[in-house]
Amino acid sequence: MKKFIISIVMAFLVLNAFSQTAKTPFTRDYYLEKSQKQKKMAWRLFGAGLGIAAIGGIVQLSNTNSNTWEFDFTGAYIAAGGGVLTLASIPCFVNAAKNKKMAIAITMDNQKILFPQESTFIFKKQAALCFKIDF
After folding, report:
1. Residue 118 — very low, low, confident or very high, per pLDDT cuts 50/70/90?
2. What is the pTM assigned to this prediction?
3. Rounded to a whole number, what is the distance in angstroms from the first to the last CA of the chain?
4. Residue 17 falls inside a structural domain
């Protein structure tokens, strides 16, 4: 009997340890804040990438020597890295737009529902969380 009780208690402890908790509030404000943070990050990546590409271009132009056939591609590599960083901002812009659409799609609304009352049905308003999905 002791083994049975201990195994039941351990099973409940393990089930409780692996259960999911709702830590993220999926509200309109949550998605708007997330969208704004992603958009700020995207603009920072874009600006940093353009700045690094410009610095790389200046370094490449200053290292060119028309007297010899030897080329130093350090500035070109820096400019290419800036270009990659600029391209890395595109997914951040896309995700920010998706989260903004999610924030627009979630609204609170009073909807009419059919409610039985005695022998007839009446329409009663009830608060509802509406989620619009566009195809």
Report:
1. confident
2. 0.59
3. 58
4. no
